[in-house]
Amino acid sequence: MPFVKKQKTNAYYSRYQVKFRRRRAGVTDYYQRKRLVKQAKNKYNAAKYRLVARITNKQVIAQVVYSTIAGDHILASAYSLELERFGCKAGFKNYAAAYATGLLCGRRALKKVGLFEQYTGVGDDEEDEVTGEIMSVSFGKRTFYVDELDEDRRPLRVNLDVGLARTSLGAKIFGVLKGASDAGLDIPHNHKKFPGYDPDEKEYDASVHKELIFAENIAEYMRILEQEDEESGTKTLEERFGSYVKAGVGADDLEEMWLAVHKAIREDPSYKHAESKKEREKNATHDKKYQHPRRKTKEERDASIQAKLDKIAAMEESEDEDEDDEEEEEDDE
């Protein structure tokens, strides 16, 4: 057999270090996370906040998070299923829901840090309506992405964290960004990923973005299906928009519904419960959790086994007696 050179020695394997567990599982992009979390060396204990936007199969999640050596801490969070409490009757995962979830998370974060009154964002009243445009204010060499800059305090700077989601043009994660930006958070961004941007012409149409914020695309599709159902006699609208039909929301009601949701969020964005779930469970007068039965002792286990053996033995004896009786009857005959 010819001599075969050993490619990797034992020394190589002894100093081999595996990747992080979440990197091996493919759920964390550490290249991205390092740049979002890394703090400035000359700013001791100055947290870097990030807007974590996630889209699941059922809802939209938005969180304002800052990191420490001990782990991540959530400053504020919002879920699109909470929008039902603010007047949303159907549609908890579309672009309009993503915008409203970002708006709710942004208003909660500003309330937490004491900037709720200073930075109201865009759409606070009828005169200052949501247009889809990007608001920015320059002060010195810095640019703040807010409509107005307060003289006493700067806005809360937050960076967008998209995770593993693809940052395609018009993605719903940018709806979360726009909602949080209109809430009053300072989030660096531009219009190149928003709906309404034409990469060929390099032009941005804010009216297209506004239509998606108020679910005009869904309303238009509902009108098309409604017209087709009238002509062909089918029930396609009810099949595809069953939750809307059940809630009594039509194509003409969507814009009013989302306007009412935005207004309710701005009036009171607080959580449903003042206390956390852990505190509520601690103060609960009764325990709803399933209590496992007490484990049997050795004597109890032996007694249970013996009872089963006695039962089997009794059954066998009764079967033997029945067989004997049948044999006697056959002999008599």
UniProtKB/TrEMBL annotation:
Domain annotation Large ribosomal subunit protein uL18 C-terminal eukaryotes: ranges: 254-313
GO annotations of cellular component type: cytosolic large ribosomal subunit
HAMAP family, sorted: Ribosomal_uL18_A
Family listed: Belongs to the universal ribosomal protein uL18 family.
Subcellular location: Cytoplasm
PANTHER family per UniProt: LARGE RIBOSOMAL SUBUNIT PROTEIN UL18, RIBOSOMAL PROTEIN L5-RELATED
Protein name per its UniProtKB record: 60S ribosomal protein L5
GO-annotated biological processes: ribosomal large subunit assembly; translation
Parts of the chain that traverse the membrane: none
Alphabetically ordered keywords of this record: Cytoplasm, Ribonucleoprotein, Ribosomal protein
Acidic residues composition-biased segments: 316-333
MF terms in GO: 5S rRNA binding; structural constituent of ribosome
Basic and acidic residues composition bias: residue spans: 270-290, 297-314
Entry-linked SUPFAM superfamilies: Translational machinery components
Chain segments carrying region Disordered: 270-333
